């Protein structure tokens, strides 16, 4: 690919980011509603560490639960937004035209993935500020740059999983997006979002080490709660990068196969 072609594809990717920004602006009121819902839900989870019956209030437990809630919000938004970009086009009846347009599929997916990571990061920052103010969290020892590095590495892995799940909206306009929640539920169970993975039954624990969320949560908690230096986070960051190198191409391959199947069988026709 020449430099001019590369620049053209990059600009096309940014155009998909701009389209997603405009879609969010169109429904800005609903975006605020769901953000408030997420803030309230996160605060409720944090309060478990303050007032669970029979358990003494523990600032570390509060921070442990809040870190899980914040990270799960980040990862689930990345996961959901990649699939929702397809869902929007299914509802508006434009996806078949997008696939026939003179752009590469990887350009289309890169633009939507870039939007998903950026949007998830923005929401997580708002959530962090809200929870820090509510619980008066002391983050003076936290290694924020290390935690941010972990999030970048995990975002790439979750984009790959999101591409796999976004095949479902391709196949069903009405129920495909909701079905992506199945992927999230499995990850929520096995990744230790609100508990250590050693709490899982022995037969389920091997699956935890296949999930990028497990390493993301472990490394981010070490950075935010214990103030672990970035050098000590590198093993988990490298695992996340290795997972991204596998999951991102796998996600692209699965999505491409799904798109070819949907085009061949006429499933992209808007009829509902």
From TrEMBL:
The keyword Membrane applies. The chain crosses the membrane at residues 32-55, 61-80, 114-135, 147-171, 183-204, 237-263. Keywords: Cell membrane, Membrane, Transmembrane, Transmembrane helix, Transport. It is a multi-pass membrane protein. The lineage of its organism: Bacteria, Bacillati, Bacillota, Limnochordia, Limnochordales. This is Transport permease protein. It is found in: Cell membrane; Membrane. Belongs to the ABC-2 integral membrane protein family.
